[in-house]
Amino acid sequence: MTSARRSSLKLLTSAASHPKYRNYPLPPPFLRFQLRGEATGDDCSVAGRRYLGVADGVGQWNRREHGSAGLWSRLMITRFADRMEQLTANEKDVDVPVRGVVDLLEEEYHSIMALCKHPDSMPTGPAPKGDWTSSSMSDPLNKHGFQPRHQHDGGKKGEAEPFEYQGSTTLLVSVLSNSQLHIVNIGDSSLLVFREGELVYESEAQSHWFDCPFQIGHNSPDTPANSAHCDTVDVQPGDVVITSTDGLGDNVYNSQILEVILEESAKEGAQQEALNRMAARLCSLAREKMADEWGESPFGDRAICEGIGFMGGKKDDVSILVSRVIEDE
Question: What pLDDT, in 10s, does the model give residues 274-283?
Answer without folding.
Answer: 999 999 999 9
